Amino acid sequence: MSYELDPGQAMIARHPIFDSQQRVIAYELNYHRDTNLGDMMAMDPDASSSSEVILSTYTSISDQGEVKRVPAFLPIPLDMVNNGTMPKLPAKQVVLMISAPAGRHEECAKALAQIIKDGYRVTLEIGSYTPDLAPLIKLANIVKLDVSLMTEDELKSKVRELLPHKVTLLASNIQSIEQLELCIEAGFKLFEGSFLSRPKVIKGRRVSANQVALMQLIQELQKPSTKPEVLEELIIRDPVLTFKLLRIVNSAAYSLVRKVESIAEAVVLLGMDQVRKWATLIAMTNQDNKPEELSRALLIRGRMCELIAEGEKKPNPGSYFMTGMMSGLHVMLDIDQQTMLEQVPLGDDIKAAIAQHEGDMGRVLELATAYENGDWEKLPADFNVTLFESAYRNSLNWAKESMQAMFE
Q1: Distance (Å, rounded) from C-alpha 166 to C-alpha 142?
Q2: Domain limits at 281?
Q3: pLDDT tens string 31-43
């Protein structure tokens, strides 16, 4: 079902929360500070509950081809709970997050007690542990702690102070894979942060021959004059790509009346744009040692860039898709971005957009990345809220359906 949200109200991004195996177990929904939560969850005439619609859109994913719903961690202002203005939410689908304010512990305890009485699970966000927080921690299911500026000794000390309270510990704002490993060792159970967007660089590593061949195919796909026979010759060199493309074109996503057995026929039926996207998707998901969330994030970014380009009526929106997708390829390959750009055959305009945010493609990439990260202050005052919100929501659904089709 398609629906539109008020452009003055809805600016929502989602940030994954992982377990120790880097599997997504929930998403934190980050909404613009000027957005009124009650308005954001206001009744939609096309839905029984717009809170259900929003939560379904932002927390349903394809995991190994199976569509799953994961809970939403939703930040709630303390005053909204205490003055009774918090909208009714489906308690099984949300975990409410409250920040412990300095000097207002009695108010916070009252809010937490009310939330628990209403059947919600609670995450308490604290800056640092002090003994006077103990009554609040006792009420919470989860305690969230920002670990970004902590040394290894500080991190272990904080965990020792919190573990006796028998709450689940969530480490937030993790900046690197190495910091994630420290948090796991210290005793945290849940994790969030930008660590997935930073490669664990292996010095001297080069892009493999198979990966280069796939990138060459993607580059060929961008040429307007390319013929299906030429693409077939390139595709059949890679058995994995051949198998997956045929499986996708014969999947339920296309509902064909007869089975397609020829790559050339698949190219004709899918069209160049679709083959380009699927070939890129296969390149992204063919990294068995990488979390599925990383592939999903790059798919969302690529599709969002493309939809924004279409909305702004830019020529060749497929190049915007490639720019968004390739902007994180270095993380997949465990090399730095500059090395990736030197080794992977991409157009100079795409490389400049990724490296320096040059040109229209660079501008769209920069703004789309800011939106998906919830860095609202980096967005210009006159940007098209309706277009960006719609592009982001549609990209979430497109990525879910695409990843499901990969496993059908």
Answers
A1: 9
A2: 209-406
A3: 875 666 666 665 4
Which phi and psi angles does 124 have, rounded to 5°? -100, 125
Whether the CB-CB separation of 191 and 171 falls below 8 Å is answered with: yes
Which of 149, 168, 197 marks a domain boundary?
197
CB 123 within 8 A of CB 140: yes
**pTM, rounded to two decimals:** 0.85
Please check whether residue 55 is in contact with residue 94, taking contact to mean a CB–CB distance below 8 angstroms.
yes
Regarding whether 260 and 225 lie in a shared domain, the answer is yes
- Residue 408 pLDDT exceeds 70: no
Location of structure tokens 């009744």: 43
pLDDT digits (tens, 9 = 90+) for 197-245: 776 766 666 666 666 666 677 667 667 677 777 777 878 877 777 888 8
DSSP 10-63: --EEEEEEE-TTS-EEEEEEEE-TTS-HHHHTPPPTTSS-HHHHHHHHHHEEEE
